[in-house]
Design brief:
By secondary structure, the chain is mainly α. The protein has two helices and no strands. The N and C termini lie far apart (51 Å).
């Protein structure tokens, strides 16, 4: 019969990988731009709060993180 005590470290490693992967996936932000209905004073993170211009996107690179779209 196998000792279940050696299974705990393996489960811990798997859970850590799952947690790190999930936190990366769920921390992504999508930015929206709408020439017709956007406003550059908006936050840009929903269709209803879209930015108006690419100039706003270009000036907001400090907000954009890897994985954002």
């Amino acid at each position: 019969m196998k000792n279940n005590g050696s299974l705990l470290p393996q489960i811990s490693k798997v859970l850590m990988i799952v947690f790190l992967t999930a936190s990366t996936i769920f921390s992504q932000t999508t930015y929206y731009i709408s020439n017709s209905q956007g406003n550059d004073s908006n936050i840009g993170t929903t269709e209803s709060t879209a930015w108006k211009s690419l100039d706003k996107l270009n000036s907001s690179w400090n907000l954009v993180q890897p994985g954002d779209s």
